[in-house]
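DM from R.C. (forwarded with permission)

"hey, sorry to bug you on a friday — could you get me a structure for this? deadline for the figure draft is monday and I only need the backbone to look sensible"
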Amino acid sequence: MILINGKEFLELKFSDVEKFLSDFDEEESFFVELKNNDISTKDLIKEICAFSNTFGGYIFLGIEDNKIITGCKDWTEEKINNSIRNLMSPVPIFDIKKLTKNNTKIFVIKIEEGTMPLYITNKGIIYERVSSSSFPIKDSSSINRLLDKRKENIKKIENKLYIPDINENINNLCGYIDLGFSITFKNAKKIYNRILNVNYEEISEIIKKTNNSFSISRVGNSICITIGDSKIENSHYNMLAPARLANFMEILPDGSFRSRIILASSPESNVVSINSILFMEGLFRDIYSVVFKKDLCKNFIEARLYEKLTTIKIFEPKIMTSINDENHEKFEKYYYNHKEKYGSNIVVNSNRMPISDFYLIDKAAFQKNKIKFDDSNILEQLFRTQYFLLGYIDAFESDENTDEN
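My reply, with the result:
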């Protein structure tokens, strides 16, 4: 999509819009709509829907068709936000910039090319951009084209997050959990620079607090971190572990994330400690926050979350603690209560959540669930796994109350 006056969206000033309008050729308005203060909510949603289903674009709100800036009196950022979130499905990827000069207020609405079409208005109409106008889609071939685009985008995200399976037969390897998310930021360039200039020593100090065996490396422009050793003990000698057989995380150049948590039993049993799931989730979250602290909330647009459990051998998950642990009795009671009510909590099959596509996390999801939109809660949502109490049914009862987390 074009840049306005060659500027990144977050850096736009009122003067950039004035310069853009002075050079603007109306015959090249495929990506641009000029709308004055009197535009109806219905027409605004129509244009946003069309841009989302096509290649994205900008709406300049408070500007006449003849490029005269008259400003906005009736529109606010909140009103625009609520209109888009309440009158379209799914919610498109968009950003809003308010610009003011001499008490004249305008809005620039940036709409990205949608990754998950079809985008539909609350009236059930699907619009697309044709030349310099927006039109409803009525033919099945155009709808099928958008649905194919959705499938292709889902496949791209899967390929980005997917880690190849472990095909080797390892005696006590019972399975593994793959966690990841594809994330969209407002300022991709700033995020990329964050990754290039990350403080590796700070990451190292975080890991050393809990584990002395680890590796931090750069593969291409990705940050790759492995927790644990690269060898497997054999009856005669140590073997190099197969690739992919490790507690592992990777931060990709666009800020997306993927990871693997290994589920292994002791050689003589089928019981697997699931403490590592919660431990690794917390460690990965802390490492990610080192890279993106201060930039996460103000740059975050949306993320699509992926989780997959792969089961290799039948196993029984259990929260394992030493007899000296202050929570030992509680966890043992939790385990035996489950066995008494439901029998063994063995895992025999693989699973993926959600079953299709991905969990969508965006600002609207925070508002819907009444969660404060800040860095801490974004990290909490990105790294929360549905598998953290793998095998158990009832919530764990803490001292204070029952907490399902």
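R.C.: lifesaver. The radius of gyration is 25 Å.
me: no worries. Confidence is low (pLDDT under 50) at residues 400-405.
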